[in-house]
Specification:
The chain contains three helices and ten strands; from the N terminus they run αβααβββββββββ. It is an alpha+beta fold. The chain has a single domain, classed as Beta Barrel (Lipocalin). A ten-stranded antiparallel β-sheet has the order 4-3-2-1-10-9-8-7-6-5. The radius of gyration is 22 Å and the shape is globular. The chain starts with a helix and ends in a 5-residue tail after the last strand.
């Protein structure tokens, strides 16, 4: 009798055991910035300088200050790609739960202005876009030799050309 119950329990366990989960998306995980701070700041300053050099000399410094404000770089990203949402955390702050179906959602930018966001998930990348009255920002996360590359494009009808930069991240050890 004991053997029958044990065998039934093993069979029940096999029958109810979940199917193997699909492998996680390649950009999923915790990622730490690999570009040293001074080198990254120099890269960001150069990108801003390239854009403002095409502006009227009277507004260059104002534009430089505004654009320098949009070049915030997270030291650590936490990305989770799930069937219906993408979870994104930056530097230990609150994790944002974003719909991954490509439908627009409303949020606010760091200045508190309303913007509309979208998420696109491909086999190779996660692309987050935000559009508001001041312009558009696209964060493109994809795997690279370093681990993860974030390519950012900021554009506005008030800019002579888009502001672009890249930052490399390495996978952080699992805290478990």
């Amino acid at each position: 009798m004991f053997a029958v119950i044990l065998l039934s329990g093993m069979m029940l366990g096999q029958a109810t055991e979940p199917q193997a989960a699909a492998s996680p998306h390649s950009v999923q995980g915790t990622w730490t910035q690999q570009t040293p701070g001074p080198e990254l700041q120099e890269h960001l300053d150069q990108a801003v300088g390239d854009v403002v050099s095409d502006l009227n000399i009277m507004i260059r410094e104002l534009a430089r200050r505004k654009l320098s404000g949009v070049t915030k770089v997270c030291g650590e990203y936490v990305l989770s790609v799930e069937p219906t949402v993408v979870r994104l955390g930056c530097d230990g702050g609150p994790v944002h739960v974003l719909p991954r179906d490509g439908q627009p959602y409303q949020t606010t930018n760091p200045a508190g202005q309303p913007v509309q966001g979208t998420v696109e998930v491909t086999d190779e990348a996660v692309i987050l876009s935000w559009q508001g009255g001041a312009g558009k920002r696209v964060n493109h996360f994809e795997r690279s030799e370093a681990g993860l590359r974030l390519s950012v494009t900021v554009s506005s009808e008030n800019m002579p050309r888009p502001l672009k930069w890249q930052v490399d991240y390495g996978r952080s050890p699992d805290p478990r």
